[in-house]
Structures are given as C-alpha cells and as structure tokens.
C-alpha cells in the first residue's frame, strides 16, 4: 500500500514535470482551459495542494465514483462484500461478451440455433465467450440478490436511503428480465418451453394480462416474432434502461452520504 502510494506520487511528479514543458501561450488559452478543468496538473500555475487534489476527484466523472473522503468502515471488504461492485462488474462483462455474440447471431427462427451451434463449434473462443455470458448472467442474478440481502441486513433501506432501495428493487427486476429475455435466444427446446410457460403466466396477470402476453409474443404463440421482440428487449431496451437506473443508483449512494455505517 505504502509502495503504491509512493508510486502514484512519483507519477504525479512526473506529470507535473511534463506539464512545465507545455508552452505557456497554449496553457493560458481558452481552448486549453476548456479541456483541462481547475485542479488539473496541466493547468498553468498548478500546485500540489489539498484543494487541487480535491478538484482532481470532483472534476472527473470517473473519479467521482470514488469520493474525496470515505468513511473508514466503507472501504472494508467485510462490510459490503463488494457485492454491488461485483454486480456492476458482471454487467460490464455481460455487455462485452454480449457484443461478441451479436457478431455471430441472427434472431430468426431459421437461423438462431444454427448460429449458436456454429459459434460453439467453429468460431475461435466462441464456446468460451458463450459460456462466460451464460454463467455471468446466472452469477449476476445471484450477486444482485446477495447485495440486496446485505443491504437489508445492515438496515440500509432506512432513511435517507429509502429512495435508493426502491431504485434497487427496479434494478433487481430489470436484471431478472434481462436474464429471462436472454433465455429464449438460443431457440432450443429449453428456451421455447420456458418462454411458453413465462408468457402464459403473464397472460394470467389481472386487468391487462392477455394484452401483455400478446405484446410479448408478437402474436398468440411463440414464433419468430417472439424471438425478435425478446432480442430487441435483451440487447437494446433493457440494457439502456438498466444503465440509466444504475447511474441514478450510484449517484444516490454518494448523495445519501456514502455507504451506510454502524450507528
Ligand atoms: C444491477 C443491480 C445493482 C447494482 C449494480 C448495484 C450497485 C451498488 C453499489 C456499487 C453500491 C455501493 C455499495 C455496495 O457495493 O454494496 C450499492 C449500494 C446500495 N444498493 Fe445496490 N446495486 C444493485 C441492486 C440493488 C438492489 C436489488 C437493491 C435493493 C433492493 C439495492 C439497494 C442498495 C442500497 C440501499 C445501497 C446503499 C447501501 C448502503 O448504504 O449500505 N441495490 N449498490
């Protein structure tokens, strides 16, 4: 730890040295200052002060995820078990492996299963990436659930975090929907019957049940139209919505005073 801190200090010093070599005309220009925000080591007259160190964090979208000050217990692995972070990591992994799968998959009844078979048997790393995607999806459902259990155990659903708990419930629902819509895509017997059961259950929901079932199926039976609907929901609509809710979720963790702690 002490060594890595030292390393980062020498890196900062190295950057500062580089910054002094930039022509002062350029450093003082409006263009330059519009790119490098206050507190940046590349701004003219930069000094290594606590204020500038805070600015570096506050002005960076990436660093914003890690606040300037953190409560001691919040960085203990044993407190959060990093389950929220793990859920997010799995989501990123699923996005990357999912993009790979999209290059080899066509969502039609005629092509879907043969594409999956070709992917597994003839494409380099195809089987590995498909399994990473499938296992990643199972693990994400488990980690989101365990994260929710951890939050409940610590009573973090209480004020001022009730709103974030509700956002969390929506995230859990979206995670389950992503898992369910992905299930149909291989177009095998398992997928076909799972979706038949799932959409039949939706059909028995009160008031709008039959309408929801019709919209999900794109007709009255599981067909190539259903496959297209589930595909668009799986690769576009649901990921788009979950990213928005994740952004709100992370933002609220910070705004609610960071991770909850012992009273
Ligand atoms: C896609 C799913 C989710 C992701 C990626 C996610 C991510 C995170 C992360 C990174 C944190 C910071 C602390 C930690 O790692 O524990 C957090 C905190 C929190 N999450 Fe989630 N979360 C998800 C789902 C949920 C669910 C299902 C709930 C509850 C129903 C929930 C409720 C909360 C609450 C209340 C906090 C604040 C906890 C505290 O202050 O101790 N989240 N979440």
If you had to describe this structure to a student in words, what would you say it looks like?
With 263 residues, this protein is mostly helical. The protein has 13 helices and no strands. The chain is 70% helix and 0% strand. α7 packs antiparallel against α9, α10 packs across α11 and α11 runs antiparallel to α12. The protein has two domains: 2-64, no CATH class; 78-255, Cytochrome Bc1 Complex, Chain C (Up-down Bundle). The protein is globular.
Keywords for this entry:
mainly alpha, 2 domains, 263 residues
Question: What's this, in brief?
Answer:
By secondary structure, this protein is mostly helical. 70% of the residues lie in helices and 0% in strands.
Number of strands: 0
| Helix-strand topology string | HHHHHHHHHHHHH
Q: What is the first-to-last residue Cα distance?
A: 29 Å
| Rg on CA atoms, Å | 24 Å
> CATH fold name of the largest domain, please?
Cytochrome Bc1 Complex, Chain C
Which CATH class of the largest domain? Mainly Alpha
Give the fraction of residues assigned to helices. Answer: 55-70%
Shape: globular
Uncertain stretches of 5 or more adjacent residues: none
Mean pLDDT: 91
Which architecture name of the largest domain does CATH use? Answer: Up-down Bundle
- Ligand set: protoporphyrin IX containing FE
Structural class: mainly alpha
- Beta-strand percentage range: under 5%
Compute the number of helices: 13
For the sheet with most strands, the description reads: none
Task: Give the full name of the CATH homologous superfamily of the largest domain.
Answer: Cytochrome Bc1 Complex, Chain C
């Amino acid at each position: 730890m002490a060594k890595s801190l030292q390393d980062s200090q020498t890196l900062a010093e190295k950057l500062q040295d580089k910054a002094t070599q930039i022509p002062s005309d350029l450093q003082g220009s409006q263009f330059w200052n519009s790119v490098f925000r206050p507190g940046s080591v590349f701004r003219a007259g930069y000094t290594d002060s606590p204020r500038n160190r805070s600015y570096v964090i506050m002005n960076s979208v990436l660093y914003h995820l890690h606040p300037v000050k953190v409560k001691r217990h919040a960085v203990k692995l044993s407190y959060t078990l990093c389950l929220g972070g793990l859920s997010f990591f799995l989501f990123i992994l699923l996005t990357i492996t999912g993009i790979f799968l999209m290059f080899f998959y066509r969502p039609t009844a005629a092509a879907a299963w043969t594409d999956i078979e070709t992917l597994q048997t003839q494409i380099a790393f195809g089987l590995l990436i498909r399994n990473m995607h499938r296992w990643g999806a199972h693990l994400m459902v488990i980690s989101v659930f365990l994260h929710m259990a951890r939050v409940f155990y610590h009573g973090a659903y209480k004020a001022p975090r009730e709103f974030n708990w509700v956002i969390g419930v929506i995230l859990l629902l979206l995670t389950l929907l992503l898992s369910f819509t992905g299930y149909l895509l291989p177009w095998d017997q398992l997928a076909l019957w799972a979706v038949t059961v799932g959409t039949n259950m939706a059909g028995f929901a009160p008031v709008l049940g039959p309408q929801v079932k019709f919209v999900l199926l794109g007709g009255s039976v599981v067909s190539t139209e259903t496959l297209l609907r589930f595909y668009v929901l799986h690769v576009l609509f649901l990921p788009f919505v979950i990213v928005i809710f994740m952004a709100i979720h992370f933002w609220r963790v910070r705004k609610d005073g960071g991770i909850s702690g012992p009273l």
